[in-house]
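Fold this complex.
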Amino acid sequence: MKALKKQLDELKKLKFNSYGKDFLLTWDRSEQELRAVVSLAELFSEMHKAGKSFKTFDTGLAISIFRDNSTRTRFSFASAANALGLGLADLDEGKSQIAHGETVRETANMISFMAEVIGIRDDMYLGEGNKYMREVSAAVQEGFEKGVLHQRPNVINLQCDIDHPTQAMADLAHLKNHFGSLEQLRGKKIAMSWAYSPSYGKPLSVPQGIIGLMTRFGMNVTLAHPEGYGLIPDVVEVAKKNAAASGGKFETVTSMEDSFRDADIVYPKSWAPYGVMQRRTPLLQQGDHVGLKALEKECLANNARFKNWECDEKKMKLTRGGEALYMHCLPADISGVSCAQGEVSAGVFEKYRIATYREASFKPFVIAAMIYLARVKSPLITLGKLIK
Amino acid sequence: MKALKKQLDELKKLKFNSYGKDFLLTWDRSEQELRAVVSLAELFSEMHKAGKSFKTFDTGLAISIFRDNSTRTRFSFASAANALGLGLADLDEGKSQIAHGETVRETANMISFMAEVIGIRDDMYLGEGNKYMREVSAAVQEGFEKGVLHQRPNVINLQCDIDHPTQAMADLAHLKNHFGSLEQLRGKKIAMSWAYSPSYGKPLSVPQGIIGLMTRFGMNVTLAHPEGYGLIPDVVEVAKKNAAASGGKFETVTSMEDSFRDADIVYPKSWAPYGVMQRRTPLLQQGDHVGLKALEKECLANNARFKNWECDEKKMKLTRGGEALYMHCLPADISGVSCAQGEVSAGVFEKYRIATYREASFKPFVIAAMIYLARVKSPLITLGKLIK
Amino acid sequence: MKALKKQLDELKKLKFNSYGKDFLLTWDRSEQELRAVVSLAELFSEMHKAGKSFKTFDTGLAISIFRDNSTRTRFSFASAANALGLGLADLDEGKSQIAHGETVRETANMISFMAEVIGIRDDMYLGEGNKYMREVSAAVQEGFEKGVLHQRPNVINLQCDIDHPTQAMADLAHLKNHFGSLEQLRGKKIAMSWAYSPSYGKPLSVPQGIIGLMTRFGMNVTLAHPEGYGLIPDVVEVAKKNAAASGGKFETVTSMEDSFRDADIVYPKSWAPYGVMQRRTPLLQQGDHVGLKALEKECLANNARFKNWECDEKKMKLTRGGEALYMHCLPADISGVSCAQGEVSAGVFEKYRIATYREASFKPFVIAAMIYLARVKSPLITLGKLIK
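Structure:
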């Protein structure tokens, strides 16, 4: 109870108003709003640990739209919705009439009559995912303004082509928890590094989310990848500006080793180069299987030139005291476990395995906090009642 | 609060007893029962708008069985169940053992031990959908009488081969809302017209539902379709009898223009002719893909003769003051938007787009009202408590 | 209310502590624990009949993992979860990232952050199903001990390669209900007999569950099957030991008639021989369709030698007074109904059809009791409050 009140006090010191806002990109939100999400996620986690319910809604739907496979985020969203008292309704596009020429704005309204929140994963097509979320958002806004919807549900980005805010925010909560406070992150070096994987086409949203968010808190963010494996240039610009504004640093290097040197945190993770994703999107949209196969072959051959981009014991030794915190959004490609050779050696992964589970454990509470802050008009007053 | 009490008073004036009854066809139910559904749907809608919960159940399941794709009705049913406090359980026949020779009466009982309501969509096979619902109904009745089921769940028709009562009732609520009262509908002309579509095999249940229901309220119902595009003859008979009994009118014409002339409401929508559906059902049941393909080709060629059956600006000018209310169950085939040429021109649809969303918005509340009236023994007393 | 208090008193007399325990095999649990499940299932059933809620949780997830088709168990689990106040979350492996080399221990933790219970059906691969459940169990135990999970969800076996405890316990509750008490079962003869079916590959878990459980209560259990259709030898050993310990009997015969003679209960049900399942498992794992087809052909030919293993009127006459209780886990292969010739004649099945529905009706309450006893620290105190 005492711990809960302390966290509530922390929250009370922040200046934020997230009521009625979608959560689409972390860089759309003020630093105070981001801090509020983290603090509330921690508070919810503590309440859950103490067996205290934070059920806020009597009824209402949390709608999920997954346009790509998902385990972690799917269950995190389901957990968050359930904990808040919302019923989960998944829009399975295969079982709907959407294929029959129905427009996004129509569907968005049709499913939203009793919806509080719409969580969307759409990360396959570069230039499409975030755009789709904004279309849904505009559609329910119109429906609300025209009196079709009694309430305007908020959209939460469960991973798009640009950002993966529920992951990045859970990662931030994990870092806060690990280092003691957000203030402690100031000046800490985090290496967001490309890593080798025997698969291709992995989204850019995780590395982009990390460099876009961690630069907000004065961290020293180093992005590492082989030549030609760049991220969306606009997002790299965002990271640069964030670093400048927060008193942090942002640089790009072309060696995993360079990024690991003296790093406090390493985040080695594979992704497909921006250029490849640009070529892949029209092929996917046209269903060009031959073209996709050829592109895959070319990319895997190219990837294979960088098999040494593996987070192994030797590279970990380069980090601060040889003891940097290893992070991953999971599932990782673990050499000798889930593939012959991958992003991380079995030894390094096993050392940090439980830590990565803990990292993931923040996600349901982060999502619950995002929903709560978007949907509850007087969040602090209601929280006070929930805690009592 | 005042508005809610007024609507509760309206409900109190009606004489109805829907407790324990399935909702399979609107023409199985008394006019007072239908009025009660509409009034309660409006009341629930007002409560939702005011942020007042109408959660009625502590626990219990609302089971859905969708034998055809659905977005609107699926989410409406899910919304209604959630708002009343029921948990949703979808029977996905692909994941069940039903294929293994299990009988309908067995399955119906196996899923119903804690069920309050079973919503079924089964609209593909002429002569099958409503029959299946009645089999489920008879099965749970037997299970209840034999003491296998503690309570007898009610079946709600979420669209069959004959009627689409949740759609027709939502349409009625929309008309009541638009014109001010059910009494205002008396003498109003509604044109339920066939319209061209580049697809074929669309169910008959919507036009049948409309002519079967709107004739109950003294409306002037005009059914329009090309020669050979008739509905199930028995349902047309129902519409005739209803019109005679309610002091309304019912006629059939073979021109969209004729039906639109001086119409207060137009409902242009494609459907497959009864004769085609009769030929299609055995082909579907036998999985005769060649026969189905041939029938489709023949029908599309026949449809193409009636491409001028499009609801466009010119035809809308024929309606009362050129300002008839356009209705559609959605999704509509919109010329130049969802197809090259379809049921409605882009201009007409856009003018009424928000109105069609509003029309759809009544469905979750209509379904909630149907469930509530079937499952709550003393509906008015319980409602009084909910409102307080 | 009086009936409820009587059953609560019955429960109070039992000595059990099931808190925090998985339910994987009935023979892992003490007789008093099994009695508690049955008594509580009956109590929940009576409460449900009386319209009294036994909602225990405010929020929390009940996760289901179905690796094989299911209707009865799926809806029983959903019903139990809903009745207790838990939200259902199904892990659909096809929609998750599990295929991408993710380990069981990782997935188990990723889905469990807010889970109270994980129900698993995995009955296809001999030597795999129960093992998988124990892996999930060990994984969440590790997650809990390492502080990743705030609570340690319990695993409930919804059918594996070895046992089908929710079915066997529902069967036991049905027998208690039919004969008046568990004491009345002492000395009663139950014939668990193989029966002919035109399909092959049916799991062994039901007959194994029956012989493993009914031998605990002093019953005279006769297992009957053709030569070569044996069960897992270890489970047969368990049954022998149980019978010796409880003062019951266990014997194996090779004739359906012999097993039926003077039986009080008959349970005729098809299964694939242990030897066949042993050969089938590696073929399934290798996706060897040719090998599977050849094995199926061989087995069906072998099965066909035993078409006379049908539970018909003539064989039923051999039972005690010709009136043994017929049991089946459903769906049964009914001759002339769901197949040309099968496990049971249409006449016998129809006579007992409603009884088999009643048998099935205990399953949701048994599952609710299993969850309740595993998750509630002071089950009797909490129950007392629920009843009041």
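Chain B touches chain C through 31 residues (CB under 8 Å).
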